[in-house]
Amino acid sequence: MKLTVLGATGGVGKEVVRQALDAGHQVTAVVRDPARLPVNHSALDVVTADVTVAGALRPAFAGREAVISCLGPRTRRDAGIASTATRAILKAMETGDVQRLVVVSAVPVGPMPEGESLWYSKIALPLLRRLLRDGYADLGAMEEEIRRSATEWTVVRPPRLTDKPLTGRYRRVVGGNVPRGYTISRADTAHAMLAVLDDPATVKQAVGVAY
């Protein structure tokens, strides 16, 4: 498959690029600083572009079969990047005739899963939402933009991310979040994002992933 990956220099983005190449996909990685993507491969094309400008993204989307966005606020100063970039992505996809879109969000943006622990539902999650409210508001606005679009979208919602290695073994809930699932590695999050690409059950759905 011919893929374009945005946020390719982030923790999840680098894993998406590496795993996609290992799986035989052709990858266009959109970055701000190519030096931050230490990956060399004959099937990799690295493009420098402003992800908030639709016109800058259109060349990177031309002839692609799917777009994967790993963009998100890493610090409070980044709040707004996910929703702003998503608006540009959607506009670029409209004119580039690309339909499939997979994005990463976060568990606190979604609903409380059935069977969740009292400690997490009443204490930990409300505290997390309050402390990181700007970032989650940005991701929530991103999800709203995507739901209103005509794309064949999937939102992947992981909990706290770690740097542990790829296992390929994690729980997945289509249309909700994973109960009592509090961590997942960036590598396995990337694995989940690639796995939904050709899974029709995940189209126009949010998918919770966790151990």
What does this protein structure show overall?
The chain is of the alpha/beta class and about 210 residues long. It is built from six helices and ten strands; from the N terminus they run E-H-E-E-H-E-H-E-H-H-E-E-E-E-H-E. It has helices spanning about 10-20, 55-60, 80-95, 120-130, 135-145, 185-195, and strands spanning about 1-5, 25-30, 45-50, 65-70, 100-105, 150-155, 160, 170-175, 185, 205-210. The strands form two sheets. An eight-stranded mixed β-sheet has the order 3-2-1-4-5-6-10-8, sandwiched between helices. Helix 1 links the parallel strand 1 and strand 2. Helix 1 (about 10-20) packs across helix 6, helix 2 (about 55-60) packs across helix 3 (about 80-95) and helix 3 packs parallel to helix 5 (about 135-145). The two termini are about 30 Å apart. About 45% of the residues are buried.
Question: Which structural traits does this protein have?
Answer:
alpha/beta; Rossmann fold; 36% helix; 8-stranded mixed beta sheet; 211 residues; globular
The major beta sheet can be summarized as: 8 strands, mixed
Q: Tell me the structural class.
A: alpha/beta
Strand content: 15-25%
Named CATH topology? Rossmann fold
CATH architecture annotation: 3-Layer(aba) Sandwich
Radius of gyration: 16 Å
Individual helix count: 6
* Strand line-up in the sheet with most strands: 3-2-1-4-5-6-10-8
Broad shape: globular
Number of domains: 1
Taking the alpha carbons of the first and last residues, their distance comes to: 28 Å
The CATH superfamily is known as NAD(P)-binding Rossmann-like Domain
Could you name the ranges where pLDDT drops below 50 across 5 or more consecutive residues?
A: none
State the oligomer.
single chain
Number of strands: 10
Give the helix proportion (percent range). 25-40%
Mean pLDDT: 95
